[in-house]
Design brief:
Layout: E1 11-16, H1 31-41, E2 45-50, E3 65-69, H2 73-76, H3 82-111, E4 117-121, H4 126-136, E5 140-144, H5 158-161, H6 163-170, E6 175-179, H7 185-191, E7 199-202, H8 211-214, H9 218-224, E8 232-237, H10 247-259, E9 263-268, H11 274-283, E10 290-294, H12 302-307, E11 310-313, H13 322-329, E12 333-337, E13 353-355, H14 363-372, H15 374-391, H16 395-413
Parallel strand pairs: 1-2, 1-4, 2-3, 4-5, 5-6, 6-7, 8-9, 8-11, 9-10, 11-12, 12-13
Length: 416
Amino acid sequence: MNGTYTLRKRTLLLISGLGLWSLGKGQGGLALTRTLKGYADHGWQIFMVIGDKNRDSTYDMHMDIHIIRFDVPWLKRWFKYRIVGFIAAAIWWLVFQITSFIIILRTIRKKRLKIDLVYGYEVMAMPVAGLLKKLLKVPMVSRFQGTIIYPWLCRPLWQLRKWDHLLAFKVPADLYIMTNDGTRGDCVLRTLGVDMNRVKFWMNGVDQMSDDRISIDQSKIRNSINIGMETRALLMLSRLVKWKRIDRALTALPHIINKHKNIVLVIIGDGEERRNLEEITNNLQIRDHVRFLGALPHDDIWPYLKIADIFLSLYDLSNVGNPLLEAMSCGKCIVTLNTGDTSTIIHNQENGILLELDKLPMLPDIICDLLSDDDLRKRLGQNAGQFAQNHFWTWEERMEKEISAVEKIMAGYGNT
């Protein structure tokens, strides 16, 4: 037979109510963009429908990633109001299901697509993803970036307050991927009756400290934020939202300054709490000792990890997020709280300081002791780095695991 045969690329339909980046282009959460790139690098073409237009409308890392966006920003403005916000969020949920379904059917018909896998990314996407799984007769992945539900399970009538989360977990999928971020998502899935044989409870991948990142000119970075070489640096890295509790470090800082004058708290990230945190800073009269750098592209964060003497993570729900994992990979001395499953990663006095919530008033003294003991700080940082090397996946390794699991599902459908 003359001519050549071109193997058709498999097509992934990914649906999400989230934007590509939580804090702007290249800024904020990495999991979604790393997932897109992982599939594209493995030869898939991706059509992604997302309910967000407030941030970057393009994604230029791969030509096989096609993004369709829609939004109702005027409705989302009501979310911040307590009672009205609950109603507005419910309306947006319904709008998202209907609009994304119509957009997807039109796109499939217009482009004559054969969808091989439906991928629901986070809570809002699951109902429409489940419907499309049945309609298109293809396998489905339900992907969760962790969960806020665990503390709610013991509360009366929690199902009414968090109905959208409950519904998302109840949508049948062929594969559930729950990020092991310390929020006990595996316990939530088990409690809600999900078939655990279909669950992959994995940590996110971690970007490595490359040679060019290791050779960073510390003096240049320090000069850029107006701190001297002799100044000790504390670092916090997160979205500025209430439950991530940046305020705990700010309130500890005056006590630390009493013993260590040359100390600066560097805060990277942005969000709804920034104005409140800046007000706390001013009220405590510690403005000269705090640097709010705002949201930075992920690749620009490494220099600040490099110069940090101590990395702080003081979240309410769990501290096993990518910022802490990357700080460990960089061999930083970690001080964190024993919330969620943080103790599975940080072992007190071995590879970091793990502080119980009722011991939080000791935070200033603990930081002061670490600043005064270079050997202890170095040992904890080295052990953190060794733990990361032994236990953490790179993003490439993490995506290899996921795609291997998907291949097995596809084989069951005869879609390899």
